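Entry for the shared binder. Reason: the reviewer on the internal report wants the predicted structure included alongside the sequence.
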Amino acid sequence: MKIAIIGANGMLSVALTKYFYGRPDTTVVVYGLDEPQGYTCDSFTKVNLVTQTLNYEDVAIADVVIYSSGAGVQAALSTPSLLMYQLNVSAPIAITLGLKKAGFKGIYVSFGSYMEIGVNEEEGKAFNEDEVVCSTLPVTNDYALSKRLYGRYMRDFKADFTTYHFILPNMFSEDDLKPGTRLVPYTLQYLQDYCAGKKPEAPKFSAGTQTRQFITLEEMIQTVDKSIMAHIPSGLYCVGGGEFLSIRNLIERLFKIYDVPCKEEYFGQSVRRDGDIRSLCLNGEKLKKALDYLPISTIEEIFRR
């Protein structure tokens, strides 16, 4: 099997390449702006997806094409809005049309986000595929809008090849055990420093009232792999499963794992760009019916020391 991964050095691209590379009878080729750093593939082709056109005759030789490039997922990086629309909408649309013209007959995989749901006051509602990409709820940023635009396109895109557009919730990964600006690395760094007696500065969290769905990156990739191997029907699929809980509850459970006091004064100290979205939860019944599988790991299973 030949797998082409379009996008390099992003969390998702790296994880996908590491997962598939080295598998027996599998070749992994990567296309992206910068050469792979800290991981290996069978071949790399440098390409600027904004200013250059892929050689679709070469890409179409692959059995599976995965578009994993995306812009704006990490708010702290302050990605320009135009670049978000170019990488989250224009580039993947061009790829689907290029593959179609090149006579691609394999499987094309792309990803959406539950941020497409938009601002809501729902308590515990799980949104299905159409409720995500066809949502009329206002979005809070260009990242969410750009992902929704592309998701809406993939809902109605038709081709002679198979297409899977997986809508993803919040994902943990092994990288979350390392320092970083994202919520979980930020929290874990404080907890690890506290336990080491380093007397770190008190953390600053939002009020933490937003409820989110959490799965592991590793389980998500296993879901993609299982879908490819089972050759489930083309379509949009919400990757449900995992745990659904408030950000505050997540933080409190992480503190409990490390047996560190979680003080009231830590909350309400910062404002998030998506703080007015009450529920971020995906209904994974369609995928579960097609695959008989959804992520199941709990917070404690993931982060227990």
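Summary line for the report: The radius of gyration is 19 Å.
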